[in-house]
Amino acid sequence: MDHPAEPERTDWVGRYLDQLATLRQLSPHTIDAYRRDLQQLHTLAKGMPWQQVRQADIRRLTSILHSQELGPRSIARKLSSWRGFFGWLSEHMTLAANPTDGVRAPKRPAPLPKALAVDDAVQLVSSAPPGRATLTSAELCNRAMFELLYSSGLRVAELAGLDVTYTKGGDGQAPSLGWIDLASGDVLVTGKGNKMRTVPVGSHARSALAAWLAVRPPPADGSAALFLSERATRVSPRVVQLRLKQHAIDAGTPVHVHPHMLRHSFASHVLQSSGDLRAVQDMLGHASITSTQVYTALDFQHLAAVYDQAHPRAKAK
Fold first, then answer.
1. Which of 192, 195, 231, 238 is the catalytic position?
2. Reduced to 3 states, what is the DSSP secondary structure of residue 96?
3. Active-site residue flag, 256
4. Is 29 a catalytic residue?
5. Which parts of the sequence belong to the Tyr recombinase domain (predicted)?
6. Do 65 and 112 meet the contact criterion of CB atoms below 8 Å apart?
């Protein structure tokens, strides 16, 4: 049921906008945005007098905006405009409370992690420079790093911190936080919260690691670092990022690739093959299964794409 129009409604909005322009010296563009937001509030409220607007009404109006597929950020901006108006209005008339208090915009959905398709990931980590039969020492190091990132889903800092074998430290060196055990086919790493985990290493990654270890020079810093920079010191996460980025460009990968994308690809591809969310959680080192569940959305996207391509009733007429 429509409410009788409030005689001074337009004047209140106009006065508020005038104050924004004169006292706060907001730009005409910003003033126009406030005007549109308040006009929309007026329309959605269907003539309800400002004094009668309650928190439940604002929640209802926010729900209407959400049902119209307005984004959470846009709804939050409108709520901010409405909140400022009602705050100013409370200084000029009696309001029970600011009806926007306690009302929040819907949460923005968390962006899905970006993962490579299986063929793209395999091509990326195994590709060699065109026209080259043998790899340089640096290229063997890169291949071992990239294969291991994809094979075991390591974080880039975990990869950079790996040693060839476990060392107790001493002589200015800290004890190992992670190391490779090629004999058992495992990598042991210390993840977030200083929690250690063991992750299997695939056969291709083991072969790449063996090829790198065969030519790896003694580290210049006296450490047991597995992966080395051009100066033969422990490689940094930033160097891994830059090397992978350039390798992806050279390989013709059509998207920007970073180490965490290989971690996402590992998780997504293992989940697609096994469906074992708990195992993926353990291998990634997630403290909560909630962090791992995001990959179920990627798995569903993959299944939906397969369905669209394969099912005879899925194709548009």
1. 192
2. coil
3. no
4. no
5. 111-308
6. no
